Automatic annotation (TrEMBL):
PROSITE patterns: PROKAR_LIPOPROTEIN (PS51257). InterPro entries: Lipid/polyisoprenoid-bd_YceI (IPR007372), TTHA0802/YceI-like_sf (IPR036761). Residues 140-239 form the Lipid/polyisoprenoid-binding YceI-like domain. This is YceI family protein. Pfam families: YceI. It comes from Inhella crocodyli. SUPFAM superfamilies: YceI-like. Keywords: Signal. Residues 1-22 form the signal peptide.
C-alpha cells in the first residue's frame, strides 16, 4: 500500500503554517480514484463545441471559489483556520436547449495562483477567523509548503479541475455530480446549487464538503494529535456566467 501524502492545512504558530511531509504517487482510477469526464475546455479550444444548446463562459472577475480549512486536535486554538481562494480561473458551461440531461461544464484554476488568508477575508468572516492575525511571512511559508513536491506537488499537477458529470433538478435548485481532480486523483462529489438566471447572466452558488482522504491526502497531525487539521474542508463557490 502506498503511503498517503500528509497535507498540513493549519499549524503551530512559529513552526509552519501550511506544509506537507511524505509522498504519494498519483493514484489511477483502479487505485480508488474516479474517472473524469471529457474536458469541455479542451473541446472548445480544439474548435469542437457541443452541438445545439447554449454556451456560458465564467466571469472570473465576478466569481469566487474559496476553500475553508479548519484547525483540529486538543490544542487546536494554538493554530489557525485558513481561507484559500482561486486567484484566477477559467470555466465553461454548456446547457441543452431543453432540460439538463447531457449538460457539460468545467472549471480550472492553477495552484500557484491560489491566494491565502487575505486579512480582509478573515475580517469579513469574523468569529474565530478574525481572532489571530497572520503576518505576510507566515502566509508566504504556507503557500510554499502547500505547493511543494512533498505537498500538493504543483509542479507535477499544476491545476485543480472541477468537471460536471451530471446535472438534475429545476431552477432555482439544481443537483450536480462533479468530478474534482486534485494532486493527480479524481473523486466525484454531490453538490446542491442555488440558481439565478436571466437572458444574459447565470449565477450558481453552492457549498461542498470535501475530505483530504478522498483525494489520497492524510490530514496532518503532530504531537500525537495535539495539533491537527480536520479531514473535512469546505469548498464555497459563487460562480457568475455570461
Amino acid at each position: 500500500m502506498r503511503p498517503r501524502r500528509r497535507a498540513l492545512l493549519i499549524a503551530l504558530p512559529g513552526l509552519v503554517s501550511l506544509g506537507a511531509c511524505g509522498t504519494l504517487a498519483p493514484a489511477s482510477p483502479a487505485e480508488g480514484g474516479d474517472r473524469a469526464p471529457p474536458s469541455l475546455l479542451a473541446a472548445l479550444a480544439a474548435g469542437a463545441p457541443p452541438a445545439g444548446g447554449r454556451l456560458w463562459r465564467l466571469d472570473a472577475a465576478a466569481s469566487r471559489l474559496r476553500i475553508v480549512a479548519f484547525r483540529g486536535g486538543s490544542a487546536a486554538r494554538l493554530g489557525h483556520h485558513h481561507l484559500l481562494e482561486a486567484g484566477e480561473a477559467q470555466g465553461a458551461l454548456w446547457l441543452p436547449t431543453q432540460g439538463l440531461a447531457g449538460a457539460q461544464g468545467e472549471l480550472r484554476t492553477r495552484l500557484d495562483a491560489l491566494q491565502l488568508d487575505d486579512p480582509r477575508w478573515r475580517q469579513e468572516a469574523g468569529g474565530e477567523f478574525n481572532e489571530k492575525p497572520l503576518d505576510a511571512e507566515a502566509v508566504a511559508a504556507t503557500k510554499r509548503n502547500l505547493l511543494s513536491p512533498q505537498g500538493l506537488n504543483a509542479a507535477a499537477h499544476p491545476e485543480v479541475r472541477l468537471q460536471l458529470v451530471q446535472l438534475t433538478g429545476a431552477a432555482p435548485w439544481w443537483a450536480a455530480t462533479v468530478a474534482l481532480t486534485l494532486a493527480g486523483r479524481t473523486h466525484t462529489h454531490r453538490v446542491a446549487l442555488a440558481v439565478a438566471q436571466d437572458a444574459q447572466q447565470l449565477r450558481l452558488q453552492g457549498r461542498l464538503v470535501l475530505r483530504h482522504t478522498d483525494h489520497g491526502l492524510a490530514p496532518f497531525s503532530i504531537l500525537g494529535g495535539l495539533l491537527a487539521v480536520q479531514d473535512e474542508v469546505l469548498l464555497d463557490a459563487d460562480l457568475h456566467w455570461r
